[in-house]
Amino acid sequence: MPDRPTADAQISGLLFAVLLLDKELNIAEANHAAEDMLGRSIKRLIGMPFVSAAGLPLDVATRIGGTESQLVARSVTIRRAGDDRKVNLTVSPLSSHPGWKVVTLSDAGQDDMRREGESQSALKAPAILAHEIKNPLAAIKGASQLLGRKVGEADTGLTSMIASEVDRIARLIDRMQELGSNSTEPAQPVNLHQTIRKAMASVRSAVKDSVELAEAFDPSLPAVLAKQDTLEQVLVNLLTNAVDACAGLDEPKVVVRTRFVSGLAAHIGEGGSSVRLPVEIAVCDNGKGLDPQLGEHVFEPFVTSKKNGQGLGLALVKKLTNDMGGRVSHKRVETSGQTEFRIHLAVAE
User: Fold this and answer.
1) Domain boundary among 147, 180, 213
2) Do residues 82 and 5 make contact, with C-beta atoms less than 8 angstroms apart?
3) What separation, in Å, do the N-terminal and C-terminal C-alpha atoms of the chain show?
């Protein structure tokens, strides 16, 4: 029988960060995932005050230092190397060693992935309803076309309007059905930058030279695990939104950036198995940004700040990204005046 792994080996293999804090809240031990999460080597982390190493908000830092009870905090913003990240944090005091604590940090986006099954079930009902609506819509359009042949020229504008509105509702229903559908297409290795450039070319042909579309690629990135057509559709949606967001500015600009990031992971499937998502695609625009009141609700169906928006575009982006095993998030970077939508994907084997 093979030797059982030691406690150290088990902690080292965990996908979420684990840190041991001494009585002064300095880091005494850390696993490899903590290196990725905090952007520093274990050698540099040892001895550092945990609060400063993680860039914790003052209220959370005060709670950690002022209690000997267990603490659970969700969607806490930490800062490393100037980059904000939302994490779930737990603090467990060690009764055997008063004053000592074990801290865990995990990416807050994992919760979204676990809830995806629930949201998909909720979206199936509208999709079924949409299917039932399509039949009478087709009848209405057909009747309006027949009527248009019998009325005088003065009334043909009304029948044309009926047909046009029916088509608009049909397109909306198509998008609702997409949200409730289940994709069976398997993810496979995809050339990341080739796919991004195809999406950019599609959007560029529509906007001409009214908005600058620029690249900031890391050419060393490997192939990603995705669905090529799906990824291209997601990027077209995000690029189109970004173009709309900065239209009307004196110097509108959209930049697509790719890079390798560490410490990001998500739970996939009912079993909750974890997968690393180290490849990031960021679609950045210099528009005024989203309404702050929308917050993380921007990915929910029928939520929009656009005057004539349907609130389905970003919901579809999230659904399609999750179908590929990835995750999507958004962030307003006030220092640069940019809004970023970030997609994180796994590396193809």
Assistant:
1) 180
2) no
3) 31
